[in-house]
Amino acid sequence: MSNITISSHPVVNEQIAILRDRSLKPSQVRSVVDEISRFLAYESTKTLKSPSVSIVPVLRSGMSMMSAFSKVLPDVPIYHIGIFREKSTLQPIEYYNKLPKKSTDTAVILDPVMATGGTANAVITTLQEWGCKNIIFVSVLASEQALTRFSNIPGVEFVIGAVDKSLDAKGYLVPGVGDIGDRLYGATA
After folding, report:
1. Is 89 among the residues known to form the active site?
2. What is the pLDDT of residues 69-93, one digit of tens each?
3. What pTM does this model have?
4. Known binder of ligand: residue 38?
5. Which among 30, 38, 85, 183 is annotated as catalytic?
6. Could you tell me the domains of the chain?
């Protein structure tokens, strides 16, 4: 899995342990995700060479990583793709796409949790069809299953905060962090 980098930074590990606490308030969840994202932003951009780069947060939870990435890449365009996972089939449904006609050479995708990999696959496919040649997918937490699915894909790199070994019947990571979008924004299912 040469295209996958998993953070070994102790601060990232500590913050992910805090994020697993389901009693955190939404403001605390956002703060922890932002802190982890700062480290992942530096890690994911340290070898960036292309002058043509965009940031693509996956709506809505990917927005929680934007502050950190826009500080590291302050003048790159930010495009949005909205995808949700249908609850019964776990299939990704795209509901919003604000990519311009001309692609950037490199896109940095932000999505804090990669569970089944369905959303990741949908976004990667969309960006490849758009013409993007290099993709860096950044996630706070991912499943082993999803990372295995994406190992050694040419032109796609993954930078991950930590890896959980399994998924539950609803497609959530175990032990995971719950529905990160709901936790970030105080929504209830």
Report:
1. yes
2. 999 999 999 999 998 878 777 788 8
3. 0.93
4. no
5. 85
6. 4-169 (3.40.50.2020)
